[in-house]
Amino acid sequence: xxxxxxxxxxxxxxxxxxxxxxxxxxxxxxxxxxxxxxxxxxxxxxxxxxxxxxxxxxxxxxxxxxxxxxxxxxxxxxxxxxxxxxxxxxxxxxxxxxxxxxxxxxxxxxxxxxxxxxxxxxxxxxxxxxxxxxxxxxxxxxxxxxxxxxxxxxxxxxxxxxxxxxxxxxxxxxxxxxxxxxxxxxxxxxxxxxxxxxxxxxxxxxxxxxxxxxxxxxxxxxxxxxxxxxxxxxxxxxxxxxxxxxxxxxxxxxxxxxxxxxxxxxxxxxxxxxxxxxxxxxxxxxxxxxxxxxxxxxxxxxxxxxxxxxxxxxxxxxxxxxxxxxxxxxxxxxxxxxxxxxxxxxxxxxxxxxxxxxxxxxxxxxxxxxxxxxxxxxxxxxxxxxxxxxxxxxxxxxxxxxxxxxxxxxxxxxxxxxxxxxxxxxxxxxxxxxxxxxxxxxxxxxxxxxxxxxxxxxxxxxxxxxxxxxxxxxxxxxxxxxxxxxxxxxxxxxxxxxxxxxxxxxxxxxxxxxxxxxxxxxxxxxxxxxxxxxxxxxxxxxxxxxxxxxxxxxxxxxxxxxxxxxxxxxxxxxxxxxxxxxxxxxxxxxxxxx
Length: 594
Ligand SMILES: Nc1ncnc2c1ncn2[C@@H]1O[C@H](COP(=O)(O)OP(=O)(O)OP(=O)(O)O)[C@@H](O)[C@H]1O
Ligand SMILES: [Mg+2]
What we know:
Layout: H1 2-50, H2 53-57, H3 59-73, E1 76-81, E2 86-89, H4 104-112, E3 115-121, E4 126-137, E5 140-150, H5 152-202, H6 217-252, E6 256-261, E7 266-269, H7 271-276, H8 289-293, H9 296-308, E8 314-318, E9 324-334, E10 341-350, H10 352-387, H11 394-425, E11 434-436, H12 438-455, E12 459-464, E13 471-473, H13 475-491, E14 498-507, E15 514-522, H14 544-549, H15 556-566, E16 570-576, E17 580-588
Parallel strand pairs: 12-14
Antiparallel strand pairs: 1-2, 1-5, 3-4, 4-5, 6-7, 6-10, 8-9, 9-10, 11-13, 14-15, 15-17, 16-17
Helix pairs in contact: 1-5, 5-6, 10-11, 11-15, 12-13, 13-15
Adenosine-5'-triphosphate (ATP) binds next to helix 13 and helix 15.
């Protein structure tokens, strides 16, 4: 652009200079030649006054006279008679000259009284201005007087003038170039500055502003661009702010959220959704849903929704990597102006736990009813037997009453187990934490279960660290936990087996955390690996018949687990079928000691 402007300015200036120069040169030339012409004519008219007819007849006198006038007029003088013969000439020999009647100025002079002509003289190799007038005597033409002047001067002068014009053009070109450069720079500088800054703004450097020192139209443009950048910066800032808030919100919601367009391309996905759908890739925005999620079930559901334009919820079961039940809710995204479907918002809720809990609850109710029914049926049966005559036999009555007592006892235990479980589940605290002497409690539990162990000839032993810090919490619960564990160990260990309870304190070297570790070890029947994960579920028994025989309902370990959790502790199982089992309870001390 600068080059164009420069070129235009220089051209215009040069054309101006050239036209002016040429015009003035030409004007001067015309003026000068007019001067010469006029001078020649007036000199000629004067000369004519002095030339008489006598003089025409006397060539010698004429020559002499003409030569005298020549010095004054500084022009060549020629006298021609009426027939065209040259009578005298100040520059050449008249006798040698040809007939001059057909010279243009001569012809014009005879016809009009004054002839003028400008010609190139072959003899003198220069332009000549000729002027001629007729000489009359008594009304008849007797001769013609002609004056002429070489146009040396004028030629020289025009040459000089053209040279000057050339110099002027060169100087003009120089000035024009300089001015052109300055002017074009002045015009394009702000535009360059605007272009430079606007490019930067377009690249995202929204703090850049155009700084012009002018106040013309370009400055108005610059102001407009600056204003646009400020507005843009503000809008982008507020958009970024909104985006950040939205992102924070989307990441903090517990549900998965995915937005797809009507072609099933992912517009947005929050981290929870990616986790729920096992998406490994970092960024799947822009990808087709099926490509990112690889689940035909969901894909078909989305296609159906788009096809029907009807929004309904669905439950999807994922099998891999673990069983997961997801509930998908969908809502349409509509174009504000047209109202047709722009995309879909899918909200995903992981209902695996919910379903599991529901299942557990139903199972629990079924189990409870079943467990309650068994002893009750048995009690009812024996009562009826007694009523229908068995009372007569004292021995039988006693036997039956004992069974009824056992069953009632079983019912009682079952109901109190269920009650303590529900209490534990609702995390009800029974009053203020009390000091618990671990060593003492273990010994108590051993004495409670001693007779049961003795019946089976089981060696029930303890290995307790000398000084163990006290725990704080509910002593009854702590005791219950130990009873359940040791009871199991005795129950599921064949006669003449061995059960050992160890308790000691452990300090974690890196964290400095103190824990009490209690191990209940038996060399009994052991537990197969596949049962371990479900061991702490309510009513879970490995061998139902066996447990029932030994009076187990499958609530013991569920209670243990809850008590351990109420102490912020952990429980682990190590077991080998046929070799024995070790239950390890670990409870942090700090939490409960004061
Ligand atoms: N020390 C153990 N050795 C082998 N199996 C065990 C041991 N402890 C528990 N089990 C198995 O775990 C199951 C669940 O134990 P849990 O204590 O919850 O129930 P239970 O002993 O059958 O009944 P409850 O304790 O309610 O009277 C038991 O049925 C048993 O099969
Ligand atoms: Mg038990």
